[in-house]
Amino acid sequence: MSMVALTPRSERLLKALIEQYIVEGQPVGSRSLVKQASLEFSPATVRNIMADLEEMGLIRSPHTSAGRVPTELGYRLFVNTLLTSQPLEAVDIRDLEEQLPSHQDPQHLIEAASGLLSQVTKLAGVVRVPRRAHSGFLQLEFLNLSAHRVLVILVTQGGQVLNRVIQPKRRYSSAELQEAANMFNSAYAGRSFEEVRRSLVRALEQDSEAMQKLMRSAVEMAHEVFGESAEGDPLVVSGEANLLAFPELSDREKLKRLFDAFNAKQDLLSLLDQSMAVGGIQIFIGGESGYESLEPCSVVTAPYEVDGKIVGTLGVVGPTRMSYNRVISIVDVTARLLSGALTHHAGHGTNDA
Amino acid sequence: MSMVALTPRSERLLKALIEQYIVEGQPVGSRSLVKQASLEFSPATVRNIMADLEEMGLIRSPHTSAGRVPTELGYRLFVNTLLTSQPLEAVDIRDLEEQLPSHQDPQHLIEAASGLLSQVTKLAGVVRVPRRAHSGFLQLEFLNLSAHRVLVILVTQGGQVLNRVIQPKRRYSSAELQEAANMFNSAYAGRSFEEVRRSLVRALEQDSEAMQKLMRSAVEMAHEVFGESAEGDPLVVSGEANLLAFPELSDREKLKRLFDAFNAKQDLLSLLDQSMAVGGIQIFIGGESGYESLEPCSVVTAPYEVDGKIVGTLGVVGPTRMSYNRVISIVDVTARLLSGALTHHAGHGTNDA
DNA sequence: CTTAGCACTCCACCTTTAGGAGTGCCAGAC
DNA sequence: GTCTGGCACTCCTAAAGGTGGAGTGCTAAG
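ok -> structure tokens follow
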């Protein structure tokens, strides 16, 4: 593991090796590497260099007499410094653009983005949906369903719609509900969710007699909905089945864990949130993510924005041996497109009622 | 394949054989069957009977000298006439009940039901969500998002909320939108979706000058939303990963197809719709479903109701070798529970505004 | 009609055996 | 020095036997 700097030649060799391995998925030997990358030195020389690279921990042999395979460290070096990020083909970009119609509500857009990611990378796509806390509150609506069941509809400035059925203690007439909603809306429209929430908590604590009964009920109902803010299923995953195609993930045990991770979503959520905080494209190679279930995988993420503010993250999950080159471009472009599509219509909500 | 009626003895034997195969998952031979089911005759006799059963197409040998395995026909006979459907354990029922809280909105209930199915059967659970066409229309709401973007919120009598962003040609003030919604609601509240749709089509065709401009816009907007009725993603699937645990599904090719089917959902949808039309518990064994992707699987479905009307279907997908016994009970109970939970609050919507 | 016995079949598992791909190292060439 | 050809060695893979067990079908006797 002596950390002598790499010579240009060994860099070039490492790059060629990783690229070949990504394509073929099998340990690459000196002879085939020379041929494939049309190097001007002999297999023996390549072997010497490979030995050095192995000593540095960048590649390894699965066993004595197989070719070499990149280690996580090798991949890391590769993506950090060796990657020639050729831009996506124009065709691909057009393809992506076409399939992300900018006139849609956020939910559809997000699902479309996830589907796109998985479709064009042939891997699994994930999108972390915007957290409500960062978005503004636009309007609240109460609606009687039956005797003791009120449907609360909450609209964010982004056009997201949340709804929940609550069971208030007493019965309200539709007129009462209407009035309550009006009062609530005029008090809070346009505020951020955190603001509204804090304000609600304060209002409930005060228990002031001054507050009208009706307003108080409205606040209570609203609080019930806002209280659930953290819930929901703010992660869209698609194309998990694509991962079945990779022989390196065929291990039943690993596969099960991986799919469970997709199902539980918890690890992925943490990972995406973590990478949202950092901003910019992030690449987690193998165990770097820190989650055992994702250990045989790499994850490439990029944040997306609404009105210049980062609100979520999207990404791709695939085997460590993925075409980082291509995937990075795709994730990048998709993030931009989604940002554009979302920003386009997240304009100042007009609530001039 | 001579269709001589089975003797009681061969029935009993078939039953024992299938039950053992379901548990062990391996071809069962005469000797082990005698031991396991403590039969009072000898392996040789069993072999004779087995030969008969094989001739009838109820069982088969994977190869010359393996035990016997049920055929689809065998399973069919088994579930049709041999199944001793012992009721679920009280514990299990309580478990199910607890996890299906009856005070929830439909969407949550449905997701919970799907999760429950997969969780307690350790297979994949699916729920076909109610088709809007069968439900009533309760209320429509228009909301300005930005200059040319209007959020349309549609509430069904069941408490389901649908929303979509549309882009009308001209800009409307919030007051206009409010008025339009009011007019629309008073005209259509409580009608069935099909009625409303037909009426909308008629209204648009007439192109009557008599109709107010505003009302016309409202109708157009509403039509856009109603027109999309068929869309959406009316199928909830959970626990696909559970199927990874079954060795008989380990075939990479089959597995891929199966997961693709879960992803595309089209086959499953058709199957569920088909079984909704029939009503009652339905069991599709292997290829019976008619969908190649589901060929190595069996599907058990039951419809669920709201207010006594069948509105959807739920079910379980697993390997042909599943504990039909148990799965049927679970599907049945879950359907009942879901019906109950949904019916409980699908009362007459009060829209006395 | 049932059963014990027996010959036979076929798979699953293990071992063996090549064959090949690749390495490491050394000694000579540039 | 650095590169290269050569060579012995390692280890995997795939195919080729070999063995044992589980199971069957058949037959002949109870």
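Chain B has twelve helices and ten strands.
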